[in-house]
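Researcher: Please predict.
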Amino acid sequence: MNKQSFIKGTIILLAAGIINRLLGFIPRIALPRIIGPEGVGIYQLGYPFFIVLVTIITGGIPLAIAKMVAEAEGSGNSDYSRRILRTSLTLTLTLGTLFMLLSLLLAPWVTSVILPDERVYQTFVSMTPMIIIIAVSAVYRGYFQGKQNMVPSAASSIIETIVRIVCMLWFAHLLMPKGLAYGAAGAMLGTAVGELLGMFVLLWQYSRDERRKLIPVLKEQEPQAIPKPLQNQNRGILKRLLGIAIPVTGGKMVGSISYLLESIITARSLAIAGIATSVATAQYGALQGMVIPLLLLPGAITMSLAVALVPSLSEAAARKDMVTIHKRMNQALRLAFVTGAPFAVIMYILAEPLCLMLYNNTDISSMLKIMAPFALFLYVQAPLQAALQALDRPGRALMNTLVGALIKICLILYLSSNPAFGIKGAVIAIIVNSIAVTMLHGYSISRLIGFRFKLIDFIKTAAVMLIMGAAVLMSYQHFPFLNIPWLQFLTAAGAGVFLYIIVVFMTKLVTFRDLVRMPVIGKWFNR
């Protein structure tokens, strides 16, 4: 069993997360070309319900297992770690089997009464086997993390993503001739196959580690009798496991239920506005399956900032070093603005050619154009939330998220049911949500530590964005390169990014000292 340091383990998981984020964008581009926005909408409508079920079963289990296994390993009690694993598997398999059977039995009622489009039925049934698969995978991921071995989790997630991409697109293509509902179900089946392969990787890693330890143990020790109070110990394990997992699960349920209500209310509100079910499903699919993933693509960078920020702030908070806390907060927010800004500019100025190049669909470009300038709030939100967690205020972060979710759902219901707004009402609601949650996080941190973001950095970032935007627009309009759309887009975006980088260093928004502090890539600049 390889045991990694905290920093090394974080980097392994971070690298896997970035790879998965980039790989995961491939089906986002290819799937709409196979099943169209309406098919993506059918796929997306079934997914939030599935997320709620998985959250109930596994929401806080990995964290609880990791914590308990780490404590057991720290005291040299590997046998206790294995009992934690067995108890956790019993719990999750029981719950997973129960919810899978309930989902299969209630699928006709759920898809016809709760969900707004009956064509979700095939997709809903296709996803039910994943409930057990993900439940088992979550237990083993928590076990390996408790052992401080992040490689199995990272390898499993990457293999799962690769297999999911191939099977998702292949199955959707095979089943598409039977109709949109079956094409979307094929995509979900491909996702299930990916999850299954990811689980097998974890099981293989566990069995390999156990075989390595088994031989020396048999040589060194005589067989021992099973202690009588073992059943009581298992009950104690279960009680503590639930004690840790339930509060965490409750926090995650806020986001999961919000996502489910958002999908249902959006589609229902569009129906109230007089939009046909098929059109409403297509619009929802375009928003949730095409536009928002594009906006969140730079989130891999800002999440890396958040990961790096937590230990730094926690250490400074333990020393009560407010100067370092303020300094690190300003650096993190400034870098989040600076790294997210060029993506926002490109998505705003070149929304139409970008959507045409990626999705072969220009109808969704108006939604992207509206949301792009406000994407900066999403990019800054991750470091702010990480700061609240590092400063031991996770409850405040949860409350802010809950308030934002309530605002979003109310606005969707009010605006999307108005024919004058339609799907744009959902777009406005998501924008208001991102602004509200980010501002609430910022206010919470300000009250907690008296933090004030440097206004001059915000002004500099806005000015650099305007300069880049002008460069991108001029390049796109005046250098049409034989009417080759993708070359025209890449030339304009490349020219804008090149100018942006120069001006960012000229205005000292970013210095080489900042680059040295960046996770993963910092060591290159340090040399």
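Model: The two ends are 32 Å apart (CA to CA).
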